[in-house]
Design a protein that fits this description.
Layout (H helix, E strand, L loop, with lengths): L1 H13 L5 H11 L5 H8 L3 H22 L1 H19 L6 H22 L2
Helix pairs in contact: 1-2, 1-4, 2-4, 3-4
Length: 118
Amino acid sequence: MERIFELGSLLDAYGALLTERQRSIVDQYANENCSLAEIAEREGISRQGVRDTLLRAETQLHTLESALGLLKKQAQQRAVLSAMERRFHDVELQPLDRDAFDGYLLTLNEIWEDEDGI
């Protein structure tokens, strides 16, 4: 299950760099929870062809993550944001400062929500 979640995350980050067929097959497998046989039927190829395409795409996605590290950086940034929220949640600030701080956190969270839909 964790592998499929990771594959979906990699697809979100780097899917545009795959071929259309690779993107389609990985999407069906990771996001639609289709079996290899179901994908083969939809795509008009053999189950082995789906498996080979899936493995090539997964290897390519992992290679891209190793080189660029977008998911790793995103996780680190989310951890820092979460720590900031916890640390400053109970800090007494002047009302204008609190509003500004809360606005910054809201903006950062909105940016991350947009990033999730890459």
